Amino acid sequence: MTSFIQLLLAALRGSETNLTAGSINRALFLLAIPMILEMAMESLFAIADIFFVARIGTQAIATVGLTESLLTLVYAMAFGLSTAASALIARRVGETNARAAGLVVAQTILLSLLLAGLLGVSGFIGAKEGLQLMGGSTQLIAYGDHFTRWMFASTPAIILLHTLSGCLRGAGQAAKAMRSLWLANGVNIVLCPLLIFGWGPVPQLGVVGSAVATTIGRTAGVIYQLAVLSSQSNALQIQWRDFALVSPIIRHLLRLAAGATGQSLISSASWLLLTRLVARFGSEAVAGYTIALRILMFSLIPAWGVGSAAATLVGQNLGAGQLQRAERSVWRATGVNVVLLSLIGVLLYNRAEEIVRFFEHDPPVVVIASSCLRVLCLGYGAYAVNMVISGALNGAGDTRTPTWLNFICFWLVQIPLAYLLASLQWGPWGVFWCVPISEMLLALLAGWTFHRGRWKHSQV
């Protein structure tokens, strides 16, 4: 027990960054724990916002929901560039080339600011048109316009918070990435009710206060990340001259980011289309499906952490020329993830109704949500495999393969199958069942692709 606590404290301190030697299990644990906590903080960020916004009213909730949909491209780009930066930096760190890793960090910051400027200005100018496109009423557009503009104005903070976290994770400094999310979330939780409802000399800003609080919180997290990366004691060596544009690195980042962004957009679009299919069967079906889906996403947080840890291990070990260690790390992470998610899946399957009742008490919705959750639980082993294998391929710099696998399994199989099953008198359950089926197919294809080993020769 004492050794476990010591290992846990080491993971939270983040004192070890060289993951190319020693126990694979230890390296996996040291990376996965802070990554799991980082992603839990990211989920808490969204929960805290909607918790306080819900106290304002339905219009405020709808404004946040529509704006988040408009920001999908921003989040997808942030994920893509973060994945690209993490892969490149992990490879350079594995090669023990700290100067080259520092140069990648500087180029990532430049590219992040460029993309943030393009997306942020476009969204800020077209806020009203965007809300209208998403089906917002005239009253909602008039009410939520300022909130949407604020959120798009915060695009630099959104993208940098993601990409700098990717830089830190690639360098093996997952604990520092975790702390930046703790700071951002802590500031947001304190400021959100203060700015929404007002207090003393602080004016009541309503839903706009949520946007301001979120922006300040994310900016605080970014400032912390920049301070860590620029510190003289940091292993990454960044110099001012590194901030001059280096075209080959920018092109490389864009090439890798394009694949990772595609993965995010394909996945997001498939969930959106499935929701549209479920909507054909009424509001109770949509409510049940939404609740089950949120429980699913939250329960997958530990698996996301393990998958991200596998990505860093692969990148650093490939950089060090240790191909077999890289492969063993992935299969070890896959085994851990399958056991972990299977246990979570069994728990959710057996306690589905009790868990759903935390969110909803309407009997028809509870029945649909609990049934949907039990169907989704059947795919937990497949989710575990997919998260690790996709993370490993991305970490190796092969972002195109997971993109194509997602396209085949989600758009060519999942969506047509959902439409077919829903049309064969299966109702919404036809849509529910297509999720674990497509995930199982993806797991088989991903495992076969990884076993072939072409990822070992990816040039990064």
Descriptive overview:
The protein has helices at residues 2-13, 24-53, 58-70, 72-94, 98-125, 127-133, 138-153, 155-170, 174-197, 207-230, 247-279, 283-299, 301-319, 323-350, 352-356, 363-377, 380-395, 400-426, 428-452. The protein is an all-alpha fold and 460 residues long. The chain folds into two domains: 1-12 and 24-245; 259-460, no CATH class. It is globular.
Topology:
Layout: H1 2-13, H2 24-53, H3 58-70, H4 72-94, H5 98-125, H6 127-133, H7 138-153, H8 155-170, H9 174-197, H10 207-230, H11 247-279, H12 283-299, H13 301-319, H14 323-350, H15 352-356, H16 363-377, H17 380-395, H18 400-426, H19 428-452
Helix pairs in contact: 1-2, 2-9, 2-13, 3-7, 4-5, 4-8, 4-11, 4-13, 5-7, 5-8, 6-7, 7-10, 8-9, 8-10, 9-10, 11-18, 12-16, 13-14, 13-17, 14-16, 14-17, 16-19, 17-19, 18-19
In short:
It contains 19 helices and no strands.
Shape: globular
Give the class from helix and strand content and strand pairing.
Answer: mainly alpha
The separation of the N and C termini measures: 40 Å
Strand percentage: under 5%
Cα gyration radius (Å): 22 Å
In round numbers, the mean pLDDT is 86
Give helix % range. over 70%
Q: Unreliable runs, pLDDT <50, ≥5 residues? A: none
Count all strands and give the number: 0
Task: Report the biggest beta sheet as strand number plus sense, adding barrel if it closes.
Answer: none
Q: How do the helices and strands follow one another from N- to C-terminus?
A: HHHHHHHHHHHHHHHHHHH
Quickly list its features:
460 residues; mainly alpha; 2 domains; 19 helices; 0% strand
